[in-house]
Amino acid sequence: MSRTIDGPDGRPRCAWSGATPEYQAYHDREWGFPVSDDFRLFEKLSLEGFQSGLSWRTILTKRENFRAAFDGFDFDRVACFAEKDVTRLLADAGIVRHRGKIEAVINNARQAREIVRSERSLAAFIWRYEGNAAGPRTDSTSAESIALSKDLKKRGWKFVGPTTVYAFMQAMGLVNDHAEECVIRAEVEQARAAFRRPTT
Asked: What is the model's pTM?
């Protein structure tokens, strides 16, 4: 099966981008482009956790609702959420109402603050695990995703298994997994080449 399909403009794109109308803009403008903003990184880790057992389309169509519900994924604010906030979120039909995943985001926000205290930024910590195309990989994990998952879990994070973390790394540009023939692959490579890796 081909790894690409022709997009509306006739140019080849990753085959998954044609699965639903919502995917093409996400594929063309976001997926794989490098990100260094702490809150965006935290948001994506959180949403990947919510996706567990669901389709990305489900999460993507609810993303603005998630952002509103979790204060823009500002982990300094989310870390202060209490049981009343869990109750509020469980009643919010605009998001995925799963107690374990909601509580994991709150827990992880507190752990993110600890990383910032010790490492100066969440981005600096995460980008140490940038994907190496030469390293051992499967379709759903890599040596780096396994290592990052292990480190996050050691620090108390939840819903951050190697597969979840690898999907996060693909989306946030730590690895370029666009198909070789995909027209966006070169754009992502250019963005990664120009990207200043965060150190603080």
From this structure: 0.95
